Amino acid sequence: MKAKVGDGVYLLLRRHGLDPTLHFGPFVELNKDNLGKDNSLYSGRTYLLPIDAATLAGNSGANSAEAKAEAAVLKFVPGSTTNVPLFGEKYARVEVQDQRLKGTVYYLVSGHGGPDPGAVGKYGPHLLAEDEYAYDVTIRLARRLMQHGATVYMIIQDKNDGIRDDAILQMDRDEVNYPSDRISLNQKERLRQRTAAINKLYASHKGAYQRMLSIHVDSRSKSQNIDVFFYHHENSALGEKLASTIHQTFTSKYSRHQPDRDYSGNVSQRSSLYVIKYSHPPTVFIELGNIRNDLDQRRFVIANNRQALANWIAEGVLADYRAK
Fold first, then answer.
1. Residue 58: which residues within 8 A CB-CB, separation 6 or more?
2. Which residues are registered as beta bridge partners of 105?
3. Secondary structure letter of residue 85 according to DSSP
């Protein structure tokens, strides 16, 4: 959007229906190389808004890297739509179904990415990489939360994959860390990158209801078929509550859809995990299964199963917020 003479950030945001108390930080982050002293605007220059630019302006050609990197902030009106290129052509159009998560902010982190594929399992002639399957569940979850009016940030992003319905998700190394930083080769630095991005955004949304979820596909003995496990910081009552609520949702779903199968997933403390220890929002770390186990692999390669995992997590998130 072009700034007019006399415009400041607050005025520009208000003119386009955005709350400056929520969107000032994201706006500055998006436009940091195009601002004057004290974050002043230059009249006549075009600035990116922390909402899908194509929807807001009716301009389908708005697809800059920065706009793709920024999470869509939906208009909280049931039936309204936004276009999110990160979700891929098939799933880019997102319709707001209701306002149940209005005012909430979620940071979603899929495990590994970039130079680190995480655990790798052999499935017939194919290799299944943890980061690809964790990413597909995570981005499906992002879309689901947006449909309920949440503000969602995908911290690890693959701008050309989108949501994929293929059984075999091809491995690549082009994921980036929000907003568009190359993921480090160093493991500790990779973790520091994602927590730093989260904590910076967390500060910009001060006062909002904020949560973080980190999603992984576990790696254990090939023979071990495992259920979904949830971890939180020992000193985070809110993180424990979110973990327990999502766990209860999974327990209920397994009881309904697979009554002859015991569900052994649980909730426990894991304060030493880097993203749990250093992320400022209440955090839940989720392990979805074992990428090296034959039974778990057969679950992960079915797109509907990946969508079901995302849906069940979203239901737990909704229940957690409803009980806040």
1. none
2. 151, 210
3. G
Q: How far is CA 195 from CA 36, 204, 231, 272, 276, in A?
A: 28, 14, 17, 14, 9
Whole-model pTM: value is: 0.78
Cα-flanking dihedrals φ and ψ of residue 159, to 5°?
-75, -10
Nearest Cα residue to 138 out of 305, 279, 306: 306
C-alpha–C-alpha distance, residues 246 and 51, integer Å: 28
Q: Cβ-count burial of 193 within 10 angstroms (0-12 exposed, 13-18 middle, 19+ buried)?
A: buried
Which residue reads 């074992």 in tokens?
290
Residues 6 or more apart whose Cβ sits within 8 Å of residue 185: 115
pLDDT (tens, 9 = 90+) of the chain, 324 residues, equals: 688 888 898 888 878 777 776 678 778 877 888 898 888 999 888 887 775 432 222 333 334 444 444 443 434 466 778 889 999 999 999 999 999 999 999 999 999 999 999 999 999 999 999 999 999 999 999 999 999 999 999 999 999 999 999 999 999 999 999 999 999 999 999 999 999 999 999 999 999 999 999 999 975 545 555 679 999 999 999 999 999 999 999 999 877 777 666 667 899 999 999 999 999 999 999 999 999 988 899 999 999 999 999 999 999 999 999 998
Backbone φ and ψ for 71, nearest 5 degrees, come out as -65, 145
Short-list 67, 151, 161, CA closest to 114: 161
